[in-house]
Every structure is written in C-alpha cells, then in structure tokens.
Design a protein that fits this description.
CATH class of the largest domain in chain A: Alpha Beta
Largest interface: A-B, 37 and 29 residues
Oligomer: homodimer
Distance between the termini of chain A: 22 Å
Order of helices and strands of chain A: HEHHEHHEEHEEHEHEHEHEHHEEHEH
Helix content of chain A: 25-40%
Largest sheet of chain A: 8 strands, mixed
Strand content of chain A: 15-25%
Number of domains of chain A: 2
Radius of gyration of chain A: 23 Å
C-alpha cells in the first residue's frame, strides 16, 4: 500500500509537466469473431509511436476481481486508495449532476416510487417515469419548508433524483428509507448516532411532506432515500504532490471528482478536440492535467464494440498534438475496463503506458491488453500510477538517506 | 490486501457454478536430467486445451519465500488471509484425523516420548513407535478421569496423537509441555491468562495420570503436549461469497479445513475418478465445488518425481469429463509447491489457470510453471483467486458508483 504521507514528504514542486489521459472504460474483451479487443482492433499509430518510447503494463483499480465504479477507478488513478477513501452514494449522485456540494451539506440519492393505498411499495422506480416528469416533481419538492435544514432537490434521470439537506449540525449517519424490496413500507429514517438526530428529523419531515405533495402524482406518489453522506475529507493533490492540477472533463461526475481532490476544473467543450484545445490554452498555468474521455465507456456500456473502437481511434488522432507539446510525462490509461461484450464495467486490468525521457522503455510495440502483459510496469495497483508519474517528472526526492 | 468485508458487501448468489480443482503440491522444480518440472514432464492434453481458453499465472500462497503448510495453503485459496486466520497445531492435528471438534473443545498435539528414571527426556519421539502401538496406548489414555474436562485421546501416526479436552470454561492459552529438546524435563503446563487456569489444571492432571499409566510402556513412558488451541472463528464461505459450497476430498485434513469455512463435505471415494463422480452426482445442488487431489503432494514428499508426473496425468485424464459438464468457472491450481527434488513443501509459486467465458484469455498455450510466468494473471497472492473466480462467475457487483 502506498502511503500518501510518504509521497507528501518527498514530493517537490518543479516546472515539469504531467498529462494523465484517462480513456474511460479503456480495457476490453476480445470479440469472438476476431479474437481482438476494442483497443487491439483500433488503428492507433500515435499510441504505438508513444509506446515505442514508453513503459507499459496493466493496472488493477481496486484489486483483482473487483469491478470498480467510476469514483473508485478515478480516485485510485489520482493515488487515493479507493477502499480507504470511499464516497457516499448521495454525494456521488449530487456530484454526478454537477451540484456544488458544500462541506456541511448532506446528500442522499432519491427514487420516486409507487406505494399502494396502505403505504406498501409496489414499484421502487415508479414505472421509470420520464426525466421530464422527474424534473417537474423535483420542482414541487425543492425548497420544502423544514425547520432543521434547507431542502434542495434536483432531478437526475428517470425516477432518480438527488436531495441535499443544507444546515448546521447535520451528521450523515442515518439509515436509508429505501428497503430495497417491494411489498413493504418505506423504512422510517433513524439516526445511527446521537449526532445524527437533527438530520434524521429533517429527513423524516421531508419524506412526510413529500408523501403529501405527491399524493396525486401516481405512479410517482412517494420517495425512497438512501446513501446519506457528506463530502469526504481528502487531502488535495496540491498537498500531497505539490502539483498545480487542472481537470479537463466534459461530464459532471468527473469534474466533481477532480474538484474533490483539489484540482481546478477548466471550462471545456464536449469533444476530444475541445478538451485538447483547452489543455493547450492552459498549458503554461498548470503542471498536471487530468484529461478525461467519456465516450469509450459509454460505448462499452451500450455494447457497441465498433463505436468504442472509433472513439479510441479519435483519441489516438488527437494524441499527435499532445505529443507535439512535449509534456515531460504522458500517461494513457483507463479508470477500469468496460468490455462491449459485458455491456458494463468489469474487473479486468487496464492497459497503461507511461512515457517520459526517464521511463526505461520496454519492448512493447503496440498499445493493447495482450502486449501490455509483457510490459515493464508489470501488473500494478492503479494507486501506484501517480507516484510513478511524479518520479518520471523528477518531482520526488530520495526516500531516506 | 483484499478485504473479506468488501467482498461480502458486493457478492450475490446466482446460478453460475465454480469448480476449484486443487492438485496438492502442484508446483515443482526441474529435473536435473531434463530441465523440466513434474508438470512440464506430464502429458496433459486436457489441461492444455483448457489453457487455450483460460488465463494463467502463478500464485503465492502466503508471500514470496514463505513455504506454507496445508492449512495456510488452502485457507489462502479459499480467500482467507492465512496469516490473519491461523489455525492452532492442536486443532489441525484433530482435524487431520477427522475428529469432530466442538467449539468449546481444546485440542493439543501429543507425542509419546521417552524419559529416564530422573524424568529427563531422552527421546522426544519414543523411538518412533508403530502406529499400532500408538493406538493401543491412546486407548489407555482415552477417558482418563479429570475433574475439569472429558479427555479424548486419538492416535495419529507413529508417536503422534491428538488429545481433546472437552468441557465448559476452557480457554486455550496455556504453554506447551514439550520443551522441544532432550536432556531436560517436560515443562509444567502453565496458564498464560487467568481464564486458562481451568485448562492448565486439567492438562496438568492429564499429564500426571498419563505418566503413571505409561510407566511400564518404555520407550513410550511419557507424553509431551503442544499447540493447545480451539476452533478459530472464520466467517463462512456462505457468508462471504453467498455460495453453497461443497468439498470433495478424500483426506480428513482437507475435509476438516473445508468444514471450518462452512463447506458441506460430500462422501466420496479415494480415487480421482471417485471424486469426479461425486461432483457429477451433486452438481445441481451446489454452486461451488472444491475438488482436492492429494496424491501429487504425497509423491512430491516421497521424492518420487515419476509418480507425481503420473498423478498429474491422471488428473488431466479426468479433467475432460469436468470440461464436458461446462461449469461457468474452472480453476486448476495447487495449495503450494512440493518439488520431488526437495521432498517437501516449498515456497515456489504455484501455476494457476482460470477458465471462464469472460476471462480475457492470454497467449499461454501449455500449463506449466515456465509458461504461466507470462500469463495474464501475472503473479498474484492466492487470496485473490476466489475474488477472481467470483468475478468471472459474474457473482460480484460493482464496488462504488
């Protein structure tokens, strides 16, 4: 296990620049027809050009066999042990929609659901109402008058919403109201510690008022809440690595995660070209860039092998520009695998390449899952990527005398 | 380090089936004549057929350089850190002879030994008396009348026996009587905590009575006891993995270990064919099978290179039947290495293959120590085998969102 305190004690600011390119869900599985993965199928001359001067390997975001969500996958790449630094479901839901959470806020994930006339849950998702309907209902619930806290309700998608309790003295350790089954009543929200009494009371009132307001909106006539949580206390990347770090990402979730670890989040567009343009515009102002590409994961989730291949090729195309800028360290990897064949995140290790003048190149000549197997980085926990990038940027002093 | 609590929190029951084939002592060392290990010498067409669709690697049961006993080797494969979950010597001795230990029992390993007329030990093994003689003497000691506990004495082999103290309020932290040297008297058994006073008294009385009973049975005229211990508290595989797990093993030690982690132990015969027949008969009733093959380890311990090769070939022969059943996940590995050249367990990492539809196959084309070196699993702690098998059986949910 890498010790953040150790890294903190030996990291030094310097002008050298690190670019971490995260191709979301990069790793794949071979197509039964060709025996090649998405990355192996893609035509990637620029990645292969970089590989020739780089050191390669495969990362485990959490540990072998564990399929990470987006948050653990990224925290690991930023150097934070994702099991130690876990982020609550409610906070992720709020971050995912770009909600600007404050440190005293408690966030919960909400579902609109259907209850029968006796109050028993008959559909935990209220027939998956439309996002438009969800938005309309959230407006009814937003700002409900509760003594202990200001109530902020925001739509997510379909039946899902986020609710934020804003006020002083709110501890988040209260139980869910969502029993995660049908045929029973929503659970009363209970404080799990004396400090959480105030939030439990606020959440209880919110649920009671929501039930009254939603009475006439069958099938969305009730709410279920779970994952009450506050922003975790993470040491920032500035504190640990002495980096001035910037995030370039178009999706709110990744912008939120970057902000959590103290990066500055830059305004950018939605395409990979937009993101690279943003990097070039801001290149002199930061010494670390996190560049996030979402499309590959979305294609994998959709089971669209060909689209994932295309997106990898688009990244490759843009990479030539990045290479021309000559950052001291370029890392290209993913936060986890999302094989099109599995239509979801998976546990498979993720290809990584690390280029620097000082990287001790291996003999890998193409960027692929199978070629990276024999790479010089071997198979490594993703939490070791940042220390390696820092070392290759000559930003880490000797440990011990 | 994999956290069992983490696995527990994301494991789900499902109909998919996992078969873990443990070829005891599988790993070897190359013969000086041929340069090939036992596994590399064996003709294994079925294993190689499986390897073509599988992912391979090498496991460390405890950590590099550490030679595991049978218990740590198996606990690691079942996913339990063998250093955290240690099993006392006495308990292992009792389990090894199929003794049905109860949770309140304290077990100790016993040696018949020889003392001179002044009570000093002159042979810690009583000239390695025969197992028949040991059995006869154990009958004399079994049921000796002690106030604090019922005494159960069972022969193991040659001079070795197991003694179980059964009663209420027996804590096991008492010192050994075996000084592990000759020329001194057996040590008085002392309580290492106030709670252990009752057991210390019982054990003291047992030793005193045994000395009287054995007076006329020179050279086996005294006993030495060590490794007082109780059954450890292990979370079951059902609790951690939500598996309905069955063990198919012909040796008591492995049946006992399987029972310790909550597997159901199936009746089976002594041959590999018997074991596979048992698996087929019970295939619909469980979703996890631990199939243990002992002969390979025994051959290695005997230094019989050729016999170990033959046993590996017998396993390979039976494997075709297992492959035909089409379990979702097949893992073939060992609990440790037992090179015939070393005539004993060793620290060398153990070849592993994991087959599933979702395993991301590597380019390894034969099952051998040297080929597994370049396998896609790399070199991994044996405790990671179960999470990987679970992931490949699609029984693990995503960690974090």
């Amino acid at each position: 296990m890498i010790n953040l305190e150790l890294i903190k004690s030996i990291s030094n600011p310097s002008p050298s620049k690190i670019v971490l390119v995260v191709i979301d869900g990069l790793g794949g599985l071979p197509s039964p027809e060709t025996g090649k993965t998405e990355l192996e199928t893609a035509n990637t001359p620029n990645l292969n050009r970089l590989v020739a001067k780089a050191i390669c390997g495969l990362t485990d975001p959490v540990s072998p066999g564990i399929t990470p969500g987006s948050a653990p996958g990224h925290l690991a790449l930023f150097g934070y042990d994702p099991v130690t630094f876990s982020i609550g479901r409610g906070v992720l839901e709020a971050i995912g929609i770009g909600f600007d959470l404050q440190s005293r806020d408690v966030a919960a994930r909400g579902n609109f659901c259907t209850v029968d006339e006796t109050g028993l849950i008959i559909d935990r998702r209220a027939g998956r109402i439309s996002t438009e309907k969800c938005t309309e209902l959230c407006q009814l619930l937003d700002g409900l008058g509760i003594d202990e806290a200001k109530i902020l309700v925001r739509p997510v998608r379909e039946h899902r919403f986020a609710v934020v309790f804003r006020g002083e003295g709110l501890a988040s350790d209260v139980g869910d109201s969502d029993p995660q089954q049908i045929g029973v009543a929503p659970k009363p929200i209970t404080a799990l510690s004396p400090e959480a009494g105030r939030l439990a009371s606020a959440a209880h009132q919110f649920v009671a008022q929501a039930k009254t307001v939603l009475f006439e909106y069958y099938p969305a006539n009730m709410v279920l809440l779970r994952g009450f949580s506050k922003l975790p206390h993470l040491p920032t990347m500035g504190e640990i690595y002495k980096l001035k770090a910037a995030a370039i990402a178009s999706y709110p979730m990744y912008r939120g995660l970057a902000k959590l670890v103290g990066m500055e989040v830059l305004d950018t567009g939605t395409s990979i070209e937009d993101e690279l343009a943003t990097l070039k515009q801001n290149y002199t102002n930061y010494d670390f860039f996190f560049l996030h590409i979402k499309g590959s994961d979305a294609a994998g989730e959709d089971g669209d092998f060909a689209r994932k291949v295309t997106i990898i090729e688009q990244v490759d195309n843009v990479l030539s520009e990045l290479i021309n800028i000559e950052p001291d360290v370029i890392v290209v990897t993913g936060d986890h695998s999302t094989p099109a064949l599995l239509k979801g995140h998976s546990w498979h290790p993720v290809p990584i390449l690390l280029y620097s003048k000082w990287c001790r190149p291996d003999r890998v000549s193409e960027f692929s899952e199978s070629a990276c197997l024999s790479g010089g980085l071997g198979r490594l926990p993703a939490t070791q990527v940042m220390p390696l990038a820092m070392a290759n940027a000559l930003k880490l002093a000797k440990f011990g005398a």
